[in-house]
Amino acid sequence: MLRAGTYLRLYWIHATWALFVPLYLWSGTRPDRYMQDVMGVEPSYPRSAIATAIAVTAVEAAVVYLVIRPRSYHRSWRRALAALLLFVPWLALSTMTMMHNGPPVFVHLLWDLCVVLTLVGLCLSAALQALLHRGRG
Questions:
Q1: Whole-prediction pTM value?
Q2: In degrees, to the nearest 5, what angle opens at C-alpha 92 toward C-alphas 95 and 72?
């Protein structure tokens, strides 16, 4: 039987993605101020934007999963660093695309920020564990 820590180690990427799906759905109910104030349009619920954002987030989660490989992950700071090197530029690109976009794009930026911060913590933790392990052996 798997312990809670093992479930967290194996499925943290899935859980994070599952937490963001309701945020995407909720973001569609938020007003798009640029469309309302500047363009004078009252936008309807952005189904295609939300579906696209959820799909892009799923692909990003799959990329993190393929790089990190949680089932065999053990103090591998190199994997976390590789994923970080992929996602920091992606976070910068997501930040640049924020202007004049609606709330689903903002939620996607939050997703990218969450992934990058988690990868930074994972990389630092794994590097520290590897150093401590090396010091003992």
A1: 0.83
A2: 120
